[in-house]
Structure formats: structure tokens, C-alpha cells
Amino acid sequence: MSVKTEVQLQEEVEQLRTRVAELEVTESQLEEARSRQQEAEQRLRTLLDYAPEAIVMLDAETGRFIDVNPSAEKLFGMPRKALVEMGPFELSPQSQPDGVPSGSAAAKRVGEALSGKTPVFEWWHINASGEQFPCEVRLVKMPWGDRNVIRGSITEISDQKQLELCEQGRSQVLERIARGESLDEVLHVLVKTIESLFPGMLCSVLVLDPETGCLRTGAGPSLPAFYNAAVNGLKIGPGVGSCGTAAFTGERVIVADLMTHPYWASFVSIVEKAKLRACWSEPILSLNGKVLGTFAMYFRAPRQPARAELEIIGIAAQLASVAIEHDVNKQMLQGLNESLERRVTTRTKDLATANTELERSNDELQQFAYVASHDLQEPLRMVTSFGTLLREELSDQLSQDANEWLGFVIEGGSRMQALVNDLLDYSRIDGQARPFQSVDLNSVLDEVMVSLRPSIDDTRSVITVDQLPNVVGDRPQIVQLLQNLISNGIKFHEKQPPQIRISGEQTDDGWLISVTDQGIGMAEEYSECIFDFFKRLHGRDRFPGTGIGLPICKRIVERHGGRIWAESSLNHGSTFSFILPIRDLH
Ligand code: ADP
């Protein structure tokens, strides 16, 4: 046994002292490192707890969460204790909307994160009540000792989606409606917009024909053509798929698995071929609650509807309703317009026919009046002239009665002659009309005064004529017009000599010419009917006449595009006025 020397022992003690000192340093370092880690963990915890987005820490080996924050508890509707027992698959539907099973899709993303990438992707989750909702998920690998830990931050995006829909979809659809695009174009845009909000979702709009009770494909751009063709013309009814039933009942229809639901029993082979598994259909209702069609969302995997999908299917159906109702109104308006146009065309044709017929019969009548008046003149002249001759030759041989009778014959003949002459004048207004020319009314008045001179002198009439304008018209007819009016003024007076004034002034409607007298006047109620044929207000014994003078005046003025009227009161004179439009001579 070797005995250690004191020196040796001292050396060993020294070495031990150094080791103890070294150990003390390491321990304090360890202590310091421990407290630093605690601090970091605390900071991490705070960050997790107060993060607005849901955060989950996933152990990639076990596939379980090791931690979640309060936002995650809120998002999934479960306490932390329950969540840390779970993994991402319990919080996802069986498959994503594009039909890919959630398991394999998630494994791919986790793999990406483990390899150092930071994948950001859209993911459908499911909460404690079984509701599905779209989220944006970001994965990142965390340093966690030798464990493979992945941090996932999850943000729900349904609100954002709705906003997008409201802003883009609504304004796009409304804009297209306003631009007058066809219904199918508008529905196509609507379907495309909704589809873009939910990847993997396929939408369709079916329009109901209220007459036949059949659905027509309005838009289904992402569904296979053979599927759209098969649905086109489908008669609605209870249990006829999701859309046929929704259109029939006016209620939303949710079918989570098309392969097992009784509504789809007769369509199994076609949906299988089209690779469709779930469908929700919303009836499109008009403002007054009538079914106009359906808006459907299809999925490639069996699933329950998500809250956001149900909210958006409602909005989509409302937009489709605006588009369809607008189209129905447009078509109705078009139909009404067309029928109105047809009626107007028919009426115009009828009117034209009636007009031609009227013109023809008018011409015939004028012709007849002219011929009759003309042919009557001769025999009348014979009656009056031979009657006069007879009276001259035989008056002293005839009895007083016979003489009186002969007088009646002659007078009747003369009256008839006056009537025939006036009728002839009337029939000449249109029949022998001359082209319009510039007519100086002052010279017309001169001519009228010459022809009326005898009666003016007889009655000691005072006639005042203002400075008159030039008008455009048929001169002889204007002579006749003024002559008739002035001669009436001379005729219809009591004992006082007639006083007549002729004036003219320019108005907005044309030249206003007035003939005013201070004669017997007439009650106001006659001021219109005196322009009718043979209308006379006095017996022939008081004032001779035929009752055709004023109808002739009216016809002449109307032929010149003007109007004539009388203003009068009994015993206070009359004013006969007419307006002739101002026109250019071409
Ligand atoms: P006539 O003068 O041959 O009787 P008109 O057609 O010229 O026929 O006139 C129709 C009727 O209008 C006259 O019978 C008369 O009663 C009334 N009338 C026309 N002009 C005047 C007038 N200036 N003053 C009063 N009454 C008139």
C-alpha cells in the first residue's frame, strides 16, 4: 500500500478545490440559463395567450397538440384541456371541399413545414358543434429541443369572404344587369364569383319556368356538360334532387351525401359519373315570395354545410333573384312594347284606310254638291225668270190669290237660287283651291268695299279699316272670307247705321284679324253653333240669308291652317276673329 506524501495530498486537495470552484460556476450558469429559459417560456406563453389568431403547437411525431392559445379555444369551441388531447384531424372534416381527404392533405403540409418551408394555405376546419368553416393556416417549424414541433396559426376567413362577395360579386352582377347583359351572362358571373370564394365548390343556377314547372340551366360553368344537360328541363317536385325539391317547397334543401339521400335515389348514377357527393340548394325567391329558381352549391365529398356557405348561398340567391326578376320585367316590357307597336301599326293602317275612304267620299260629295248645284242653277233660273214673265204678262188677268201664289213661286225660286249659289261656293273651297301666295289684306279690303258699296251706301254704314298685314293664302278665298264677315256686320243691325271696324295684329299663333260691329249681337251660347250649316238665329222676314256664309268662312280659315271664333253678347255687337298662321312661301 503506498502512502501519499503530504505534498501529494496537498496537490489533491488543491485539485479538489479547483473542481469545487468549477462546479460552483457551472451551477450558477445553469441556474442563470434555467431562469432565462423560464423567462423565454413566459414570454412565449404571453405571446400565445394574447395572440388574436388561434395558435396551436403540434408535436409532429405524435400528431397531437402540445399547447393551444385562448383564441384557438374560442375558434373551435373547446377548452384547452380537450384540445391538447387532439390532433389536427379531429378538427377537420373528412375531406376538403376539393374532395381530397383531410388526412393526406395535412400530412403533405406538415411535411413541407418540417423541411423548413413555411406553407400558407386555405383549410376547412370543423368546430365543437360540427360546423365547417374556411381558414387561412400558416405552419412553421419551432426550435423545441430535439422534438419536432410545428406552430400553426389559424385565421377564420369567412367574414373576409362575405365582404369580398358583397363588394365584388354584388357590384359586378348589378353592373352587368345595368349594362343590359343577358340573364345567362349575369348568372355565369355570379356563379363564377361564388365559386372563387370557396375552392372546390361547384355552383349552379337553375331558372324555373312557371308555365311548365320545369327547371332550365341558367348557369353551371364548372359542372360537367352532361350533368347540366340532364338537369335541364327537370320537372320540380317533392324529392326530386336538392334543386327540384327546393324549387317545389320554396325551402332550402341540404343533402350531406347524395349517394345515400332518398331525394337523390334516382340520380345516383349521374352524380357518381359527375363525381358529386354533397349539395345544398337555396330557392331563389321574388320580392313577393314566388319561386324563380334555385342556387346550388355542390361538393366532391360528403359533408355538412359550413356557416359561411349557408350565409353566402342566401346572398347569392338574392342576387340571382334581382337578375331573374329584372330579366322577367325586361321581357314583359319588351312584350308589352311589341304588342303596343303592333297595335299602333294596325291602328295606323286602319286610320290610313279610313282616311283614304273619307277623302274619297269627301271628294265624291264635293263633286256631287258641285254638279248638283251647278245643274240646279239652270232649271231654277227658268222657274224664276218664267215666273217673273208670267206675272208681268198675266198679273191683271189673275185673281189676287193666284198673283200671291205666283209671288211665292218666284220668291221660293230666288231663295233656292241663293242657296244653290252658296252651296256651289262652299264646294269650290276645296274643289277649286288655288296655291297660296302673298296676299295684301289692304288691297283685299279695297276689293271687298267695291263689291259691298251698294249695301254700304243703302245702310249708311261706317267702315273703319286699320293698317292690315300681308298674309299667305288663297286670295279669292280671303276676299270671300272678309266679304262674308263684313256683309254680316252690315246686315245684322237695328235702326242705327252699322259701324264696323277691321283690325289686324301679330300674335304668337299668327296674324289675328278681327271684324267688329255694333249691331244686334247674339247670346253667348250661340257663338259656336252659328258656324254650323244652315244655322240662323232669326226669321228670314227680319234678316234674309241662307245660313251658309259662316260655314264657308270656317272652311276657308281651316284650309289655311287657322281658326275662327265669335265673341258677342245680345244687343252689344259682335267681334268675329280669325287667325292665319305666319308661313314662308317656298
Ligand atoms: P246668314 O248670314 O246667311 O244668315 P251666316 O252663316 O252668315 O248665315 O250666319 C249665321 C247666323 O249667325 C246668322 O243668321 C245670324 O243669326 C248670326 N250672325 C252672323 N253674323 C252676325 C253678326 N255680325 N251679328 C249678329 N249675328 C250674326
Report the span from N to C terminus: 157 Å
In round numbers, the mean pLDDT is: 89
**Measured on Cα atoms, how large is the radius of gyration?**
54 Å
- The total beta strand count reads 18
Overall 3D form: rod-shaped
Tally the helices: what do you get? Answer: 14
The percentage helix is 40-55%
Oligomer type: single chain
Bound molecules: adenosine-5'-diphosphate
Poorly predicted parts: none
Question: What percentage of the residues does DSSP assign to strands (E)?
Answer: 15-25%
How are strands sequenced across the largest beta sheet?
A: 8-7-6-11-10-9
Describe the protein's architecture and organization.
- This protein is of the alpha+beta class and 586 residues long.
- The chain has 14 helices and 18 strands.
- The strands form four sheets. Strands 8-7-6-11-10-9 form a six-stranded antiparallel beta sheet, with helices on both faces. The chain has a five-stranded antiparallel beta sheet with strand order 2-1-5-4-3. The chain has a five-stranded mixed beta sheet with strand order 13-15-16-18-17.
- Helix 11 (400-431) runs parallel beside helix 14, helix 12 packs parallel to helix 13 and helix 13 (475-491) packs antiparallel against helix 14 (549-559).
- It is rod-shaped.
- The termini are far apart.
- The structure holds adenosine-5'-diphosphate (ADP).
- Residues 488-489, 492, 517, 519-522, 530, 535-538, 545-550, 574 line the site of adenosine-5'-diphosphate.
